[in-house]
UniProtKB/TrEMBL annotation:
Keywords: Acyltransferase, Membrane, Transferase, Transmembrane, Transmembrane helix. This is Acyl-phosphate glycerol 3-phosphate acyltransferase. It holds the Pfam family Acyltransferase. One of its GO terms (biological process) is phosphatidic acid biosynthetic process. Residues 72-189 form the Phospholipid/glycerol acyltransferase domain. It comes from the Bacteria. The chain crosses the membrane at residues 12-35. One of its GO terms (molecular function) is 1-acylglycerol-3-phosphate O-acyltransferase activity.
Amino acid sequence: MTVIRSSLFMAWAILWSIVSAPLVVIAALALRGLWGYRFGKLWRLGIQWGVENLLGIRPKVIGLENMPLEPCVILAKHQSAWETMTLQDYVPNGAYCVFVLKKELLKVPLIGWGLAAMKMISIDRAAGKDALDQVVTQGRERLKQGFYVILFPEGTRVAPGQTKRYKPGGAYLATHVGCKVVPIAHDAGELWPRQAFLKKPGTITVSIGPAFDATGMSEAEVNRQAEAWIEAEMRRISPHRYRDAARSNA
């Protein structure tokens, strides 16, 4: 059944992207304003329809009340492609989100073109300090425009139970702009593994942590606080993935 579900979803995702992704580019370039984001949301909702109804994957959200009403920096665990779509549903008042991503992604046919048209924060990872300054310049502008900025501080997708070093980009943006930071933990990788064709039905737990103000903090302090909450919460929602959590629950 998992093979059938995954095959149907893949067919649907390709078909829906072929139909809707060009509309995102056209809307962003021709209509300008928020039209690219509106059509981007249409594409995303279509994909999520397939996730819920073909794959049988649904979210369970904890701590939604922790999301600030004003635009902020969101630092989230990254285990799959699922959260890149679904986390955008948890910002208030129908606001839109932008991601910090590597420039190479903008070259991916259809999806990459749509991301470029919607002016995501794209950086050259090889640029070092200049890359961080790019994040601040673009991120400050997006926040002023009312967008929430989502970053995955580990920089890449990590398997359940694993942790990579938290990179400074999101913390650097938050401290230089002076805004709130929201940590998010989830277990999407349990059902939607990295680069895996087969995806299992079930419930993904998303836990939104308490927001904290990065004003006056150093990048290291922001990362320490976000990492401490995220990794502790990962052990709570996925104790079977961590030996220390399993021992404490024994």
